[in-house]
Write a structure and sequence with these properties.
alpha+beta; Uridine Diphospho-n-acetylenolpyruvylglucosamine Reductase, domain 2; Uridine Diphospho-n-acetylenolpyruvylglucosamine Reductase, domain 3; Uridine Diphospho-n-acetylenolpyruvylglucosamine Reductase, domain 1; 3 domains; five-stranded antiparallel beta sheet; binds flavin-adenine dinucleotide
Length: 300
């Protein structure tokens, strides 16, 4: 590992050893990652990906960690953090080019200021371009797929541009080739009216603040909505709203959110998830599928 660290530092990336992933993820749980590596620009990012793919060390890419739970036993290998890859540029009258670590909310603010409309749906989604496209993030009747024009992916040593029609998206899922890393994207918006966009964003945020536990650490919706019923309503009907294990519980405000009272472990959270899955199947015959991603060393 020491040789690898030296090679990574030669590229210019910032390296943190034994990094507590509870400091990285929005739910504030998870053990230590061997290394968290932050490229400072896109060429370092590509060089790092090429280096790691030719090593036998496992690696994973994270944006803001707002949709990710890390096991208590942490992560063996490298977490590549895109947090410094934040460039956003309006490249013609209606198109925005953004690096993989650009925050969706910052793109929203910039595009509204430029008189563009189309990104308002993302108000309050705390992720990045990479995480947002990977998850096909959405809210308020919009999804990222609606505004994607071109996505650049790194795949097995090459950076490739994919047009919107070449990517299959579905509810909270993108079907990018296995092993793809999103490096940047162009979003296509429309000329709009800034005051109307600001009004929509305010309405979305008011609704979010009233219905979601924004004051406590959480990781957004835990489960995808099954076809029959909204996941939050189902969890409530199963009698699990407010139910807790250790330092984690299903929010009293919105049952599809798990909140961390401050001392939750990943194990607490995962036991809650398993409880809801089991009860949904037993009581209602419904198979709940997690929206949140779980990564790291499983056996905790
Ligand atoms: C308070 C709160 C509210 C939320 N509300 C919503 C909502 O309304 N709608 C919604 O859809 N989501 C919501 N989320 C979930 C989350 O914000 C989104 O899924 C977001 O898009 C995740 O982005 P991220 O950068 O944090 O991803 P991360 O959690 O860092 O990563 C998520 C997944 O994407 C992969 N990934 C990240 N970057 C890349 C990349 N560059 N290339 C390839 N793969 C990558 C990771 O490996 C991981 O599997 C919410 C979360 C919170 C905490």
């Amino acid at each position: 590992m020491n040789d690898l660290i030296m090679e990574i530092e030669t590229i210019g990336c910032t390296v943190s050893c034994l990094y507590p992933m509870k400091k990285y993820t929005w739910l504030r749980v998870g053990g230590l990652a061997d290394l968290v590596v932050q490229p400072n620009n896109s060429s370092e990012f590509l060089e790092l990906l090429n280096l790691l793919s030719s090593s036998n060390v496992p690696w994973v890419v994270l944006g803001e960690g707002s949709n990710t739970i890390v096991y208590d036993k942490g992560i063996s290998g490298v977490v590549i953090s895109t947090k410094k890859l934040k460039k956003i540029e309006i490249i013609d009258e209606t198109k925005v080019l953004a690096e993989s670590g650009a925050i969706l909310g910052t793109i929203l603010n910039k595009t509204i200021k430029a008189g563009l409309t189309g990104f308002e749906f993302a108000a309050g989604i705390p992720g990045t371009v990479g995480g947002g496209i990977f998850m096909n993030a959405g809210a308020n009747d919009g999804e990222i797929k609606d505004v994607v024009d071109t996505v650049w992916i790194w795949l097995r040593g090459e950076e490739i541009a994919l047009s919107r029609s070449e990517i299959k998206f579905e509810y909270r899922k993108s079907h990018l080739p296995e092993g793809s890393v999103i490096t940047k994207a162009i979003f296509k918006l429309e000329q709009g009216n800034s005051s109307e966009s600001v009004r929509s964003v305010k309405n979305y945020m008011t609704k979010r603040n009233l219905t979601q536990p924004i004051k406590m650490s959480n990781t957004g919706s835990i489960f995808k909505n099954p076809p029959q019923i909204a996941a939050g309503q189902l969890i409530e009907e199963l009698g699990l709203k407010g139910f807790g294990i250790g330092g984690a519980k299903f929010s009293d405000l919105h049952a599809n959110f798990i909140v961390n009272s401050g001392n939750a472990t990943a194990r607490d959270v995962l036991e809650l998830i398993e409880t809801a899955k089991r009860e949904a199947l037993l009581q209602r015959g419904i198979k709940l599928e997690t929206e949140v991603r779980v990564i790291g060393n499983e056996n905790n």
